[in-house]
Amino acid sequence: MTNLRIGHGYDVHRLTEGRALILGGVTVPYDKGLDGHSDADVLTHAIMDALLGAAGLEDIGCLFPDTDEEFRGISSLLLLEKVAGELEKKRVRVVNVDATILAQAPRLAPYRKQMRQNIAEALCVGVERVGVKATTEEHLGFTGDGSGMAAHAVALVEMDC
Fold first, then answer.
1. CA 148 from centroid of its chain's CA atoms
2. Quick one: what percent of the chain has pLDDT higher than 70?
3. In angstroms, rounded to a whole number, what is the distance separating the alpha carbons of residues 154 and 142?
4. Average pLDDT over every residue of 45-70
5. Between β-strands 148-159 and 3-16, what pairing exists: parallel, antiparallel or unpaired?
6. How far apart, in whole angstroms, are the C-alpha atoms of residue 76 and residue 8?
């Protein structure tokens, strides 16, 4: 018998000048970046929380607190690798992850393939197990007016019984 579990993750960060915009480990050309303690990669953060939730583990705020200087400016892909290690310790295998970035701009379609590849490599899974989509918010709310970005993610994992 298999033990499949689903997790959901959500993250949001404010856009600010003077920072690189990093999504799924890709530096996307844009005049603003996401503000945060790490590289503020909302896509990778949402995926980490989805995986951790599915596995019944603490969220990224507990594992990588923004009060810890060790994580200041760190690549979220490195943190995702650490999450993958925690999953492995618990004998949890990633079946798939699927995520959606909510952002009015910039256009993200040209970067999605590399985002998927980066996330798959960090999780040691095939790229076909990683979905990344992007949508605008039709100029509604903080993501629609360009003051921030958000991401939702779901993850399916299999745990040993």
1. 15
2. 98
3. 22
4. 94
5. antiparallel
6. 18
